[in-house]
Sequence to fold (92 residues):
Amino acid sequence: MRVRFTGAYEQPEVNWQADIMSLENYLSSHAGFAPEHGERTALMVAGDLDADPRRILVALPFAEITRREIMQTVVMLRNYRRMREGLRQWSG
Fold:
């Protein structure tokens, strides 16, 4: 699912393009990618943060991505204060 929205990032307002998918789909397309510690529960890959729109990929631990998860992800991205280029992963 691709979503475009506006939000802050080190300046008043920027355009975001987020690709949101299930963690299972992401891992199946990146087979050699193993978690560093424990079982991976979610991950985020921020691309070129100087581009317009700024691109980001988010993989969530849900079999199906619903409107609710999309809206919660947009809110999380708008509020995330430590956004940097590269991979961020969360493990359980």
